[in-house]
Amino acid sequence: MTSTERNALLDFLAEVPFFSEVERASLSELYENAELEQFIKNNRIIEKGDIGDAMYVIVEGQVKVHDKDHSYGILSKGDCFGEYALIDAEPRSVSVTALEDTNVLKITTAHFSQLMDSDKGFVKGVMSVLIKRHRELDIIQEQLASSKKEVEMANSKMTGLIDGAMDAIVMFDGNFRILLANDSAKSIMENDEVLQRNILFFLDDEGADMLEDLVKSKQSSRKQNKNTYLPKIVKVFGSDGKETLHEGTLSCYGDETEVFYTLILRNIDDRLTAEHKISSLETQTEYLQEEIKELTNDHGIIAQHKSMKKVLDLIAQVAQTEATVLIHGETGTGKELVARAIHTASNRSEGPLIRINCGAIPANLIESELFGHEKGAFTGATESRKGRFLLADKGTIFLDEIGELPLDLQPKLLRVIQEGEFDPVGSSITKKVDVRIIAASHRDLLQFSKEGKFREDLYYRLNVFPIEIPALRDRGNDVSLIADAMVEHFSTKLNRKIKKLSQDQKKLFQEYAWPGNVRELQNLVERAVIVSQNGEIDWSFIIPNSNSRAAQGQTAIEPDHILTSQEIIQLEKENILKALKQTRWKISGEKGAAALLGMPPTTLTSKIKALGLVRPV
Questions:
Q1: Interatomic CA distance for residues 324 and 343, integer angstroms
Q2: Could you report the per-residue pLDDT of 355-402, keeping only the tens digit for each?
Q3: Helix or strand or coil: residue 502?
Q4: Is the pTM value of this prediction over 0.85?
Q5: 571 alpha carbon, distance to own chain's centre
Q6: Dihedral over Cα of 437, 443, 447, 451: its sign
Q7: Gap between the Cα atoms of 591 and 612, Å rounded
Q8: 593, 601 Cβ separation under 8 angstroms
């Protein structure tokens, strides 16, 4: 080696950090006894487990420090390795392999020790380097300690922030394994040991599928640090069976090798409950507004006749119980008024009274009207709807004309009566309700059940406490009392002064059969007040058949009077009209007008056309 090459190598050693404080003369002594070795690519310089006897300084090339396939790092020109062999004779802890053709300067332990013993300048230089390194290490340790404290403080703040959040926060990896979960998350999952568990196990099928799709989307698009709102509400199942509904966001962080996901869930059970309550109140308000309209025409129950007083006694007896009541009576007798009276006198009076006429709603809609439906349950169901039974919760439901309820729905009603539960249309979730049922019908339900038109078991469940309302024609002077009250009501409403009924006028009211009962009376009185002149009403022209009765009375006084053909036609016309009104213009059938008149329905139809009889609107 030339002197130039030798000086260049000494200059190189002076730049090596391990020898940077050693004097040049000592470095020259070190170099004289060192060995310059060459290793080609992939040659092993140090083998793990071999006894160390030298340190190495890389002059040219690169080496890899490793343990089998695990790499600790790469060293290059000016770096040293194997220094521990200078102070001990322990086995090597790692292997070192050349990554390319590499030249190293080998300094044996024996030569290094000899210099340490004989060359004070060498000792001083090495010690200076070690002291400098120690000082730098102290500074680094102080910085690490300070950084550790800052990290711990930041971690403490972050942990407090995360654990103090009311929203559930869950971090998981690409395999959906939970890495972090705050207290709120553990609470909704009802599990304090959720780490390393699969988050999908805590979600319903729809929510799990949605989360998997979102993760796949983020993996393919590599969009990170961007919150994605969950497109649907997620249902979370707790380990103890509790179910909660949440909305939330998903974000992801990481690099090309590993990505983490953060799911934030906000419980919306309370909000949905409030929205449900608001919706129920709004719907109930609509019903109540309809009820108020009805109440404006409600004149209460006027009863002096013993048959109606008996009804009032029955109302008082049953009101304070929870018994199911079945009200029977002809159309227009006031079955709804009796139902209202029972509800008002009951312990449920603070709750709603919801009514529904089972005969006024198409058969294909009655189930939805009673029990509600879910969105998409059938064509036209664009949104979920609460049925009348849910609206009547903690109150009373009045099922008018229960005999018209379709047979296929009767088991569902029976289940509500027996179990207090039902399934809305299109839903698999059972609803619980606390409802008192009052039913009413003008039909003979027992006979209906024998004919197979009504379930016998449902009849007996409804007929726990039967109440029979007498027809208006069977209540004696009650019809006059009710008429007087109605005259006063409509007089005030229409701002007209109408005289009270005279005795002769009351007699006219009591003589008429009133096939439409109180409802017919109400309509007749309202019409009479409207057409009244100067406070006078000629009730003989208002009440049907009044003139014919007067004629009949005259005929009775003159039994020898011969009726003309026109009088006979008029008499037949009035008789047919009376039968039609009594049967509400039902012609055929067991209770039709033809049966009352004793003639075939086809004959009666022909006579109606011939006499010019037209059903009133």
A1: 12
A2: 999 888 887 788 888 888 888 777 777 787 888 899 999 999 999 999
A3: coil
A4: no
A5: 66
A6: negative
A7: 23
A8: no
